[in-house]
Amino acid sequence: MSGELLDVVPVMPVVVLERLADAVPVARALVAGGLPAIELTLRTDVALDAIRAIADEVPEILIGAGTIVRPEQAGQAAAAGARFLVSPGTTPALLAAMADTGLPFLPGTASVSEVLAVLEAGFTEMKFFPAEAAGGAAYLRSIASPVPEARFCPTGGVTPATAADYLALPNVGCVGGSWLTPAAALAAGDYARIEALARAAAAR
Ligand code: 3PG
């Protein structure tokens, strides 16, 4: 799937779930809003079960696992039904573990040296994280000419206001953000709000 992960949706919802019960309704709201993909972060106890539930009950969404920070999490996420993997940074062990699953994945990068290391390993699609803090759209614009092979999903501090700046760059396929699933909307079970935020983002 390399070469395609960045082209599924213009905005990748980065989702942090505290309650397993939100998993399926959130996935359905994102699909209804026109964003049929999720990077579900492995930051909470329910994350793997949430991936399993979405994979079982909302097969039309491309469910991925984010915040892969330890090699063993790659296989756990794949076993739960994740169809792609995302890490905030890259180590040789993480890269090997993600590649071993056979799934497409976005290894995290924040510097030219890290980008070159990922390219050397044979992968051209990556996450740029934390995007705003690491230099934002200006940084990615600066490296497009010297390192044209690399394509990015910038994530971390991206907002509806800055998304367009990134998406206009030749080396950006999509952006990622948590603004589509705000903690307050999740706490209130306000899935209509999530659907509306997805619809606005999908219209880009
Ligand atoms: C991520 O893991 O990609 C980030 O936590 C998402 O960043 P954001 O919350 O600033 O959108």
Describe this structure in words.
With 204 residues, this protein is α/β, with parallel strands linked by helices. The protein has one domain: TIM Barrel (Alpha-Beta Barrel). It contains 9 helices and 9 strands. The protein has helices at residues 23-32, 47-57, 71-80, 92-100, 112-120, 136-144, 160-167, 183-188, 191-202; strands at residues 11-15, 37-41, 62-66, 84-86, 105-106, 108-109, 125-128, 151-154, 175-177. The strands form 2 sheets. A 6-stranded parallel sheet has the order 5-4-3-2-1-9. Helix 5 links the parallel strand 6 (108-109) and strand 7. The longest helix has 12 residues, at 191-202. The protein is globular, with a radius of gyration of 16 Å. The two termini are 23 Å apart. The model has no long low-confidence stretch (mean pLDDT 96). It binds 3-phosphoglyceric acid. 3-phosphoglyceric acid (3PG) is lined by residues 14, 41, 66-67, 88, 129, 155-158, 176-178. GO terms for molecular function: 2-dehydro-3-deoxy-phosphogluconate aldolase activity. Pathway: Carbohydrate acid metabolism; 2-dehydro-3-deoxy-D-gluconate degradation; D-glyceraldehyde 3-phosphate and pyruvate from 2-dehydro-3-deoxy-D-gluconate: step 2/2. Belongs to the KHG/KDPG aldolase family. InterPro entries: Aldlse_KDPG_KHG (IPR000887), Aldolase_TIM (IPR013785), KDPG/KHG_AS_1 (IPR031337), KDPG/KHG_AS_2 (IPR031338).
